[in-house]
């Protein structure tokens, strides 16, 4: 019994279809997904802070709570716009996991699976920067024109 194929037999079993490389994550889709993720984290931070202010012994808790809620409303509006853009771009988030190191996201785009992880120090720094931009009247990294 023969254990190796002849060259003719080997050629007949070789797949001659071109190998299609998996496209890399585009810079735009990655930026959009990271922004969306940071907006979600910012909303949760604001929820937490609103609860603390509401339960506090501050002199003007309703004033501070209303300021935080107004900020949260603006963040929620951008989050909804980012979600609409994700859907319009045909991107689907298949999993979002929070673990000790950070937040891991798996998503599909153009028929391919991709993933990325944001480390907690990056999430904290970027969420703080994002909320600071909103506080200063900026949105999506640009100053609002009015």
Short recap of the structure:
It contains four helices and five strands. By secondary structure, the chain is an alpha+beta fold.
Summarize the helices and strands and which ones pair or pack.
Blueprint lengths: L6 H7 L13 H28 L6 H28 L2 E8 L3 E8 L2 E8 H16 L2 E2 L2 E2 L3
Antiparallel strand pairs: 1-2, 2-3, 4-5
Helix pairs in contact: 2-3, 2-4
Number of helices: 4
Instruction: Pick out the low-confidence regions.
Output: 9-19, 141-146
Characterize the largest beta sheet: strand count, sense, and whether it forms a barrel: 3 strands, antiparallel
Give the radius of gyration: 24 Å
Mean pLDDT: 84
N- to C-terminal distance: 84 Å
Question: What features would you describe in this structure?
Answer:
There is one protein chain. 54% of the residues lie in helices and 19% in strands. The protein has one domain. Helix 2 (27-54) packs antiparallel against helix 3 and helix 2 (27-54) packs across helix 4 (120-135). A three-stranded antiparallel beta sheet has the order 1-2-3. The protein has a two-stranded antiparallel sheet with strand order 4-5. It has helices spanning 7-13, 27-54, 61-88, 120-135; strands at residues 91-98, 102-109, 112-119, 138-139, 142-143. The chain contains four helices and five strands, in the order H-H-H-E-E-E-H-E-E. Mean pLDDT is 84; it is low at 9-19 and 141-146.
């Amino acid at each position: 019994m023969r254990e190796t194929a002849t060259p003719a037999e080997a050629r007949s079993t070789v797949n001659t279809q071109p190998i299609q490389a998996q496209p890399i994550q585009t810079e735009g889709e990655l930026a959009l997904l990271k922004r969306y993720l940071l907006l979600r984290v910012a909303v949760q931070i604001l929820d937490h802070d609103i609860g603390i202010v509401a339960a506090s012994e501050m002199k003007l808790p309703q004033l501070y709570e209303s300021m935080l809620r107004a900020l949260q409303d603006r963040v929620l509006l951008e989050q909804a716009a980012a979600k609409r853009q994700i859907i319009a771009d045909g991107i689907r988030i298949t999993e979002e996991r929070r673990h000790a190191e950070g937040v891991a996201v798996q998503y599909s785009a153009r028929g391919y699976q991709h993933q990325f992880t944001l480390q907690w120090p990056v999430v904290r720094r970027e969420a703080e920067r994002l909320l600071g931009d909103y506080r200063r009247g900026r949105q999506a990294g640009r100053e609002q024109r009015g």
